[in-house]
Amino acid sequence: MTTNLSLADEKQRLRKEALARRKAMPEVVRIEKSLALADHVSDLPIPEGAVVAGFWPIRDEIDPRPLLDRLRQNGHTLCLPVVADPYLIFRKLDRGCAMEDAGFGTMAPGPDAEELRPDVLLMPLAGFDRQGNRIGYGKGHYDTAISSLEKSGPLLCIGLAFALQEVELVSAEGHDKPLAGILTEDGYRSFC
C-alpha cells in the first residue's frame, strides 16, 4: 500500500526530473515553443466570451503571453492570479495596465484592477501525465483556488507546458483535480 509520504516523494521526484528537462532547453527553443502556443488557439475548447485566467511566466516556464494576446484579440476578458490568503485571486488584465509583484515571483495587475472570477484557468505546471493529472510546484495555490472557484460554477482547467514535461504517471491524491486538457507546442490534447 502506498502512503501519503511516498506519494509526496514520488511527486517530488517527477517534479524535479520534469523541471530539469525544462531548464535544460536552450532559451531560443523555449521562446519558439512558447510562440507556437498561439498557433493552436482555435483548438482550445474555450467558450465564446469566457473570462480566461493566464499567468505571468517565471524562470523557464512556457510563456503564455502571445497566446493570451490572441485570446484577447478573439474577445476574451483576461485576468492574472495574485497569491492571496486563503487562495489565489484574479485581477483583470488590460493592455497597458500597471503590473506589480503578485507573489511567487510572478507579476499581475495591481489592487486597483477589477477582481474577476475566471471561467477558464490556463495553468502553469511542473509535469503532467496522459490521464490529465498534473504536478504543480508543491505550494497548493491552484488546488485551493480550483476548490473555491468550483463552488461558484463550472471551471475549465487547461495546463500549459512544454511537451517534454510529460511524465509516465502522476499518482493523484484526493485533493488533486485532473486537467480538462493540456496545451503544448505540439497542440491541444483533451483529457475529457
Describe the 3D structure.
The protein is of the alpha/beta class. It has a single domain (4-190), classed as NagB/RpiA/CoA transferase-like (Rossmann fold), CATH 3.40.50. 27% of the residues lie in helices and 22% in strands. It has 4 helices and 11 strands; from the N terminus they run ααβαβββββββαβββ. The chain has helices spanning 4-24, 27-38, 65-73, 141-150; strands spanning 51-53, 77-82, 89-92, 99-103, 106-109, 120-123, 127-128, 134-135, 156-160, 181-184, 187-190. It has a 7-stranded mixed sheet. The protein has a two-stranded antiparallel ribbon with strand order 4-5. The chain has a two-stranded antiparallel ribbon with strand order 7-8. A hairpin with a 5-residue loop joins strand 7 (127-128) and strand 8. Helix 2 (27-38) packs parallel to helix 3 (65-73). The longest helix has 21 residues, at 4-24. The radius of gyration is 16 Å and the shape is globular. It starts with a helix and ends with a strand. Substrate binds at residue 61. ATP binds at residues 11-15, 134-142. Belongs to the 5-formyltetrahydrofolate cyclo-ligase family.
